[in-house]
Hints:
GO molecular function: cysteine-type endopeptidase inhibitor activity
Region (Disordered): 40-59
Largest sheet: 5 strands, antiparallel
Structural class: alpha+beta
Keywords: Protease inhibitor, Thiol protease inhibitor
Family: Belongs to the cystatin family. Phytocystatin subfamily.
InterPro entries: Cystatin (IPR027214), Cystatin_dom (IPR000010), Cystatin_sf (IPR046350), Prot_inh_cystat_CS (IPR018073)
Amino acid sequence: MQDSRRPSAETRGSLQMSLLIPPRHPRLISARPVVKFQRPCFDPTRPPHRRSQTKTTQTMSKRALRLAALLLAAVAVAATPAAVAARVGPPLAGGWSPIKDVSDPHIQELGGWAVAEHARLANDGLRFGEVTGGEQQVVAGMNYKLVLDATDADGAVGAYGAFVYEQAWTNTRELMSFAPASR
């Protein structure tokens, strides 16, 4: 008599085949059909699904364009003549900028030194008057183009241009050029 809780051999075989459970008895191996689970695999002829990637790429492209436009607008505003004129601070390295206060004692002392150095080298009796204008350039130190008034040996006052290089931390000064200036 068969146990009602236990399925018959026939039912067991079909149950095992439907659940893909390997049979316990060697006789049922040959009767079991071969069923393979087919997994999705890479198909080189089929284009990949990129819907979400395309949206992400488009969103990133829009953001990049907005950022570029914003940066371009900021540069345009910063480069206006009013913005350039309003900048306050030390002169930019490499660029010539006007000397703001030519009455500064250091600038006047540089002018006097330039005239004295020229007079020592040229022995022409030139005497310093005052610095009337000039430009400065930041390098490894400072370059100065000074416009100054000086009196020659005959007592005539004239304008001169002096190009002076100064490096304050090494106490270096050089008179690069000195010549009469045209007004």
